[in-house]
User: What shape does this take?
Amino acid sequence: MLAELSVSLWRGAQQGRYETYSVPQRESQTVLDVVTFVQRHIDPTLSYRFACRVGVCGSCAMTVNGKPRWTCRTHVAKVAGSGRIEIGPLENLPVIKDLATDMQPFFEKWQQAKGVFAPSKTRHDGIEQIRPDSPVRVAADAAIECINCGVCYAACDTVRWNADYLGPAALTRAWTLVNDERDAGNAARLQAVSETGGCHACHSHQSCQELCPQALNPTAAIAALKRRTAAAYLKREIKG
Amino acid sequence: MNVRLYLWQRATAALMAPLVLIHIAVIFYATRQGMTAADILSRTHGSIAWASYYGLFVAAVSIHAAIGVRNILTEWSPLRDRRAGQFAVAFGLLLAALGLRAVFAVVLS
Assistant: This one.
């Protein structure tokens, strides 16, 4: 095992440069450990974002050797075989400083895709019985574990080319809610994901499902949305 | 791309799939039979069937390609939806004019 890692970190905002640091290599070291070492022992002005360190919160995604990854669960040994590692901010999002991006466009697109639960009952109604093995619940469960890390959004070529595109995470969330029997917002949701920048802009490159740290399949969810919205359009439930 | 354009593009693709296969089969048949241009034109001249077949093909190609070009322009050029749409309509009309001119020449000339 190499004693030192050569670590290049993005410094600056949208304009900036990579600066190289030397970091001791350790066993079971994660990429987030490397970034934290630099911030605590070499340059305390380094900015980055993390919270839970165990792959739950979705805060720490960065570009690692050219690919978006959740850094807290990415081992250095997996991505830096040569002893060199380049870490930058997520692609397709404005850079605030160093490794921290502005996630606002990402979450605004969740709102645009109507990725918010729309209740169909009041507190006075009884609790709805949902069978876990019903087909729609199985479809809803498929992507329920999304942690909003933005890896799929950063990996997506269509997001890069088309500023209006809602992106894999927002569309996958919309598909989850389309299949939620308790939700009452499908008319507006299917309309929202059928307009310019909606699910039909997806080219099915599948970078999202290849790199999703939760092993979800946004491409499949988007394909399902395409089928559902096409049927809704032909039945005149939504406008073209 | 929205749901309306998506459905038009998929529908024209589905329509073109058999049309392309028939078109290729016709090419193979004509070349293997050693048919001359005069032989072919003698069979296509005045044929409503060939006019309908290739007329439909031209219409499908024009719509399908125009939507694709619009998509490429919105993603790869500075043109936004409206301008890209206008360019795509013009491109589709050009394809339709060229294609229908060829159909006219093969069937009616």
Notes: Chain A has two domains: 4-101, 104-234. The interface with chain B takes residues 158, 161-162, 194-196, 198, 200-201, 226, 229-230, 233-234, 238, 240 of chain A (CB under 8 Å). Residues 193 and 199 of chain A are 6 Å apart (CA to CA).
